[in-house]
Amino acid sequence: MRRSTIRILPVLVTLSIAMPGLSANTIVDPQLGFTLTLPDEFLPRPDLIGVKPDLVHAFQFGRITEGDTPVLLLIFRMRGIIDRDRLTMQSMPEDFKGSLFVVTWRGIEVDGILTPETVNGIHVNNNIVQIPLRREAIQVNLVGRADREESLQVLLRRVLDGLDGESNWLPSLLPPSIAGSQNYGIVLICVAIVGMIVGLAIFWFASRRFSMATVSVIAFALWLIGWQLHNNRMREVKLASSVLQMLGIAGGLLAWFLFMMRMRKQKQVQKGALDFLANK
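Above: the chain's sequence. Below: its structure in token form.
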């Protein structure tokens, strides 16, 4: 699915007060498929769960004094996966007043949204990052005072470093600036198609020069190499694995087909020679 509507929640800041709690430490969410290890300063805020739909985890960074504005970490479920389409200012709502930024999570570039708000006369920033988890995407919101944005960005980096889970986006061998391009997937598909065509052409010529046993061994070797690479999570390696496996199967079938055609032709030649000798 495409990205869900961005959840902007300044109202939660007005609901937050300093409250005692235990260190959040490590959170394990088997339903959404992620673990989150937070700095000890984060305190759970179970009182905020349910205030907004799909809010599944809430934390407060440190303790605050009366009248101060807390830093809140809010995690929402997105009820679906997200694709690799990058966010642009053109894709944002017309009344959007914030800005976009890019952060890296587990070697993958993901889009971030900074939304400024004013709560009780205090300027706050809502830093939003949508994480492409395999089971279901989540949205991480880090909300705090606007005049502490530099500290918020550092804290957001620490939060993302502690977030672990399997993504539906495969990591890439190439730099994120290249792998994150919208046309990169098309390039990979084109390379795979060309590789299949070239590979089948090589099998065609090899089948005409070598025995079926030799070509079959080569085909099986390619399939086996592809199978060995199948568990690798790198995007390019995953594609190469699929191409090798398909090429191994297709090459073996092609070799068998050409061998049968060759045998049939030889039988026809032999039969023609025998008929010629019988007629004499």
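Strands lie at 26-29, 34-37, 42-44, 55-61, 72-77, 99-105, 108-119, 122-131, 138-145, 163-165.
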